[in-house]
């Protein structure tokens, strides 16, 4: 008995010590301390393993619960749309997609060129919308003019000079070569400007000019979130030291987070302007800047965000029934126009599994044991660690049979040139693949579809 009592007492002491250490970490270490970030990251992963918490469960909650608060996407959401000289042809299709989809009243478009000298104009909701050269605006600030002599701003100056000299080919070449560097310079000034112009919005949505957002799914998500809590939400990438929301997948920041950064922490904003001169990724800079003021990426809704265009959107079992907020990689204006047309008028929440039917995937019969193979198709897509690759499979039917006998296989592709059978626990619409045969494990797909609870 005494031994058991001593063990319990020692356990309580250890627990109290651990809690005290965690409290000291929270109080004494800066928000961006590597130790603090590591503890936060690993604690979140442990919680997901132990209690089943995490993005999948959050997605299920969002899909099943009624909206707890009112939200008007037209009035409550501001969009920061980023573009550049090299991608200027995407701006109007992106604005048309926003108007048809999200439909918010206020859009701030930032770029690295002035459209007027080029004879360009853009429309949104029946009116001209200004496209602001955000880098020129930075250099108008007397305290930031020194940046003009830095390498990235010199590259911007070279591109601007080529445009002014009527040398579009050179400007295009420079834009493609240094576009990602100039993009990194736009995030913080763009957010700064958006908040200055529209400080009363509930939510701020950052979009690339090749990102499409699905209105009903976005509305469902935001109706479940409180804009008066500092929140930063998106598609997580990166390690624990700089976990950030992938910019192309759409990024959401609440008004409380924007207020904390731009009104309460001007030193952090000033530092971010300087760090943009060398930071590789502007979307990562948003995260590291918000971390400094105590706003961390909320990963509970990660599986609602998507970094691929419709044909390459990987429909996984853990996402089948989750709402899908949008697509990325619609780099050709025709792709953006097509997505806008296909999704126009859809008022129901779009799930990941809906991509298959909405964008023209073959019908998956409820009573079919095996779907017929599709010639010159590839529903598996890029090979990754989840893909099974079997060599020496003589015909498509044998590949199909292997998939049907594998409880995790959802799609298969067989190529005649090398007799290789690829099987994946996910499926994509894919693009044309010469010499390939591909199919879906219909019973597995129907089993997954049967779990979905559709919410309007």
- Shape descriptor reads globular
Biggest sheet, spatial arrangement of strands: 5-2-1-6-11-8-12
What is the share of helical residues?
40-55%
Through-space gap between termini = 60 Å
How many β-strand stretches? 18
Taking the sheet with the most strands, its summary is: 7 strands, mixed
Q: How large a portion of the residues is in β-strands, by DSSP E? A: 5-15%
User: Given the helix and strand composition, which structural class is it?
Assistant: alpha+beta
In oligomeric terms, what are we looking at?
Answer: single chain
- The tally of structural domains comes to 2
Point out poorly predicted stretches: 50-58
Radius of gyration: 25 Å
Q: How many separate helices?
A: 16
CATH architectural category of the largest domain: Alpha-Beta Complex
Mean pLDDT: 89
CATH class placement of the largest domain:
Alpha Beta
Enzyme class: transferase
Organism: Thyridium curvatum
Main location: membrane
InterPro entries: C1GALT1/C1GALT1_chp1 (IPR026050), Fringe-like_glycosylTrfase (IPR003378), Pan_app (IPR003609)
Describe the structure concisely for a colleague.
The chain is built from 16 helices and 18 strands.
Any chance you could write out the topology, listing elements then pairs?
Layout lengths: L1 H27 L5 H18 L3 H10 L8 H4 E6 L8 H10 L5 E6 L11 E2 L2 E2 L2 E3 H7 L10 H14 L3 H30 L5 E6 L2 E3 L1 H9 L8 E2 L2 E2 L6 E2 L5 E4 H10 L1 H10 L6 H11 L4 E2 L27 E3 L4 H11 L10 H5 L15 E2 L12 E3 L5 H9 L6 E5 L4 E5 L11 E5 L1 H8 L7
Parallel strand pairs: 1-2, 1-6, 2-5, 8-12
Antiparallel strand pairs: 3-4, 6-11, 7-13, 8-11, 9-10, 14-18, 15-17, 16-17, 16-18
Helix pairs in contact: 5-13, 7-8, 8-12, 11-12
